[in-house]
Amino acid sequence: MSYRKYHGKNLRKGRVSIPGQIYSITTVTRHRQPVFADFAAARTLIGVLREQKEYGHAKTLCFVVMPDHLHWLMQVTGNKDLGRVMQGVKSLTSRRATKRIWQKGFYDHALRREEDVKALARYIVANPLRSGLVSHVNDYPHWDAVWL
Q: N or C: which end of the chain has fewer CB within 10 A?
C-alpha cells in the first residue's frame, strides 16, 4: 500500500463536516520538520487553537502539540466546515510564524456516540510520554484538556 494514498485530496474523500460533531484531528508539519520543538512556535499554534472558540469555529476538548505534528480533539461549532476550520488554523499559524509550516491535508476521525471521549483525550495528551519526550505528562508544556 502506498503512503501517498493517504495524502492531499485522498484524505478529503468521504469527509463530512457535521455541526456539533466531535473530531479527532491529526496534522503534520511540512517534511515532518520539528517546527514546534521551538517553544515560541508551539505557543503560537496553541494561541490559534484557543482563538477558534472566540471565532465560533470550534471548541477544543484537548490538544497536544508535538515537535512535528498536532493532535486536536475538537467539536465543530455553529455551521462551520471542518476543512475550513483546519485551513484557518494552518493559515494563521503559518502567517504568524512567517513561514510555511504545514503539510497539505489532515487526518480526521468523527467520534461515534459509543466512543469514550475522556479515554481518547487521555491517550492524546499522553503522546509526549509515549514518544519519550518526557517522563511525566505534566512535564510537557504544550498540551491542554477541558473535561466535559
A: N
Q: Taking the complete model, does pTM exceed 0.85, yes or no? A: yes
Domains and CATH numbers, the chain: 3-134 (3.30.70.1290)
Place of cell 485530496: 9
Tell me 78's DSSP state: T
8-16 contact pairs (CB < 8 A, 24+): 8/104, 8/105, 9/105, 10/105, 11/105, 11/106, 11/107, 11/108, 12/83, 12/105, 15/82, 15/83, 15/108, 16/110
How is 17-34 classified by DSSP, letter by letter?
--TT-EEEEEEEBGGG--
16-72 per-position pLDDT tens digit: 788 889 999 999 999 999 999 999 999 999 999 999 999 999 999 999 999 999 999
